[in-house]
Amino acid sequence: MSIQTKITTPFDDQKPGTSGLRKKVKVFQQPNYLENFVQSIFDTLEEFQGKTLVLGGDGRYHNREAIHTILHMAAANGFGKVLVGRGGVLSTPAVSHLIRKYDAFGGIVLSASHNPAGPDGDFGIKYNVSNGGPAPESITNAIFTHSKAITQYRIWSDTEVDLDYLGDSEIGNMVVRVIDPVYDYAQLMEELFDFEAIRALLKGGFRILFDAMHAVTGPYAREILENRLGAPAGTVLNGVVKDDFGGGHPDPNLTYAADLVARMWADDAPDFGAASDGDGDRNMILGRKFFVTPSDSLAVLAENGTCAPGYARGIVGVARSMPTSQSVDRVAEKKNFACFETPTGWKFFGSLLDAGKATLCGEESFGTGSDHVREKDGLWAVLFWLNILAHRKTSVEAVVKDLWAIYGRTYYARHDYEDVDSAAASTLMSELRANFATLTGQVHEGLTIKLADEFGYTDPVNGESTIKQGVRILFVDGSRIVFRLSGTGTSGATLRIYLERFEPNPSLQHKDAQEALADLIRIADTLAGIKQHTGRQAPTVIT
Ligand code: G16
């Protein structure tokens, strides 16, 4: 039994995107592909000898094999202990919590989030640092640089490890501790929320449904919603983790959570519906025949949050990604707390949370979270909503409409064109950039463009800067169109168009979002030539 040093040659495509390295399973199955990336992570880090690593994934196809490899590489590289979820499974927020709770050096999450799984699906790997959050760009860039020059990796000779039983075993000098994936996370949720009040709400006949979409949140939701909070058995739909996610696309939105949506729009619909994604960090909140946009959901938490015990201390600030609607900004302004606008990617929230500048964070991409961990957190958002509903004793729809009554409604939609030709997508973006100077002052459909630019960001805490984070077209009346290329897709390019309009007039707040945004949708096509560049007549997904 010993450390083996294996000779390898670099791959040139291991650049982490918005959230780690995501590729087709078949790419990860190439000899040395995973090993190169993992060794590049370890070679980039310093002073972790003898320290603890947290390791787990969302249970998708290839998870077990990858866990086996990473354990052996961690042992050969000098980690002292690895905490791994039973069966190799841990949700992303659970990894973040475990890193923080057990003072680990860092963690590795195996997931491609909401992307489909299975032999022809996607796989992914992400490194999280000691604050529990995704590694900042300074580290991911260094990992990429290293991956292009790697010549060898270290791995312990093959040792039997049983991932299915709780307890300790050893690979060389390293302890492998298999832990219950749910326990620590569920304890944290009990500390943050008023479980008593939620239990009483459910006992009083308030009916809920949670769709785990055959992905990682199944066991978490069963333990918390059914066992601890007393929701009836069957509240958690699709609660068994499958390595192909049941053939589905575990993206909690109106398109991919279609079964849940059908139930929530039925005449006997429950009072509250929610879904999470592959790795448990996203959430969608629904009322009876009512959809809450993620941007409004963040604003609702900011407005009502102090009713939850974990937030009774007050909210010091909020942060949202640039394409997320400005709904929460209005709450922050009125309540006089700070509001930060960051690039897309949860990694940009970490420094603000660490510095105590923000309590709540959110993104339009169905992500909401707080300073309790350093990832977005799907079930946490569900419990937060239930706590608010238990406190307010009213419906989801009424809570959102009350928000609109106070602050005005922000109509919002995102149009995605998935798997378009990469060259065509980048031409579209460069043409927009080339037109910035002439766009200002133009009038389209009666709307005047105030500014066209590309969003850049300098972190107010650590001074790190990042550029080219999305093209913004800002109109004089406050409306916005944002164009971005996704950083999480694995085939072709995904063009995202974010559309937003503020409507302060209560008598105009009842419209369907697509209808209310129809002129902006047309303007987006006029300015960017979407149909012409992509050859598509309509978006693949509208959220
Ligand atoms: C990741 C990031 C999010 C981001 C989302 C979409 O989420 O953590 O911050 O908003 O991707 O990114 P993009 O628009 O670049 O595809 P997840 O849930 O996929 O890990």
UniProtKB/TrEMBL annotation:
Its cofactor is Mg(2+). Pfam families: PGM1_C_vert_fung, PGM_PMM_I, PGM_PMM_II, PGM_PMM_III. The keyword Phosphoprotein applies. InterPro entries: A-D-PHexomutase_a/b/a-I, A-D-PHexomutase_a/b/a-I/II/III, A-D-PHexomutase_a/b/a-II, A-D-PHexomutase_a/b/a-III, A-D-PHexomutase_C_sf, A-D-PHexomutase_CS, Alpha-D-phosphohexomutase_SF, PGM. Residues 14-153, 184-286, 296-407 form the Alpha-D-phosphohexomutase alpha/beta/alpha domain. Belongs to the phosphohexose mutase family. This is phosphoglucomutase (alpha-D-glucose-1,6-bisphosphate-dependent). It catalyses: alpha-D-glucose 1-phosphate = alpha-D-glucose 6-phosphate. It comes from Magnetococcus marinus (strain ATCC BAA-1437 / JCM 17883 / MC-1). NCBIfam families: PRK07564.1-1. GO terms for biological process: carbohydrate metabolic process.
